[in-house]
Structure formats: C-alpha cells, structure tokens
Amino acid sequence: MPDSLLLRLNPEAPGEAEELVADHLEAAGIPMLGTRTLEEITIHLLATAADTREAALDQDAAQLIESYVTIQAPPRAAGARIRDLMSEHNVDIAGALDTYDRRIELLAEAGIDLANAEFSAEFGRNLEYYTGFVFQIEVPAFGASGHIAGGGRYDSLLRAAGAPVDIASVGLAIHTERLLTAVREGL
Questions:
Q1: Chain-centre distance for alpha carbon 121
Q2: Three-state DSSP class for 148?
Q3: Cβ neighbours of residue 128 under 8 Å, at least 6 residues apart?
Q4: Last residue of a domain, one of 86, 118, 150
Q5: Other Cβ atoms closer than 10 A to 18
Q6: How far is it, in rounded angstroms, from Cα 50 to Cα 10?
Q7: Which of these, 15, 48, 71, 141, could form a disulfide with 121 (CB 3.0-4.6 Å)?
Q8: How many domains in the chain?
C-alpha cells in the first residue's frame, strides 16, 4: 500500500476515505474479489492510517516493552517475573495476571504436565483474528519448525465472517503428519 494513500486517508472522515480507497483500487486495477467489502477494507486502512499518526512511545514505555518480550520461562515463573516487572514500573495488570494464573491452574488440574511447558512473551501469531491466548505444541527433536499443533482464542473471527455478534472461540490446527511421526518415533 503506497504511503501516499495512508497519508491521504483521514480517520475523521470515513466517507471520504472510502471514496479514496475505491479510486485507489480502480487506478491500480485491483478488483473487489472475496468477501471483504469496500467499507471493511477502508476501516482497516483507516486504523492503519491512525496508527501512523500516533506519537512515538516514550523511552520508558519502550524499555518496559523490551523487558517484557525477553521473558521466557516455565509458566508459573514467567507469571511471577511479569508481576515483578510490572510492579517495578507501577503498571497494574493484576486482572490479566490473575486470569493467566487461573488458566495455568486449570491446565494443571486437567492433567497437563507443565514441566515441559514454556511461556514466551515474544511468541505470537501473525493472524489478526487472534484475540487472546495463543499456543503451540512443539516436538524439540523436530527442530525450529517442529510444532505439531498451534492455535488460540479468536472471539471476533465469526463476527468478521458474518455472525451478528462476537462468539467466544478457541481452535487449533494439527499437523497430522508431524503428529504421526512423533507418535511412531515415541517422541
């Protein structure tokens, strides 16, 4: 997307923006295919344009984020490290951390062995529809691309696909060929 289009989009004038996006698509020879409407595309581009106009983070906020994304530890230890980090910076995310701790408790109560689990603050998914907890199940013997399953929470996805309201959803994809290899090899 050329920067010039983003610079011309005014988040305060969505009606004008839709016309600019339509003109841009037409001039570039990009047909409207698929399920996204011109309005949906414009809304997304307006959000991107608004982000480009935001002031840069101050140094303290940037440093806090840098410190956070380096946290990689077993689940309970990671939660404690995050609590300590936020406390040092007077940031109150107690509600989110209580939810995280409860999730860890529920996993343990469900029989999930957390001894080999690892929390990574840097881990995430590049798909915009995820709205919360994301995970990946890996087989270390398979190397860097050795995950056998991955997924997460995506409460807004069904609304984006046409449902009238958000629907709480969790899902995952399993690489069955990798899973079969792991089972056969006793990994």
A1: 11
A2: strand
A3: none
A4: 118
A5: 19
A6: 8
A7: 71
A8: 3
| Alpha-carbon 71 to chain mean position | 17
Domain shared by 147 and 132, yes or no: yes
Residue 81 pLDDT: 96
The structure tokens 């056998």 sit at 148
State pLDDT tens for residues 139-163. Answer: 888 877 778 999 999 888 888 888 8
12, containing H or E segment: none
Give the DSSP letter of residue 130.
Answer: -
Distances (CA, A) of 8 to 27, 32, 45: 15, 21, 11
Residue 9 in contact with residue 17, Cβ under 8 Å? yes
Q: Is residue 107 domain-shared with residue 136, that is, in the same domain? A: no
**177 & 157 share domain:** yes
Q: What are the pLDDT digits (tens) for 57-92?
A: 899 999 999 999 999 999 999 999 999 999 999 999
Phi first, then psi, for residue 72 (nearest 5°) are -145, 115
- Distance (Å, whole) CA 93 – CA 84: 11
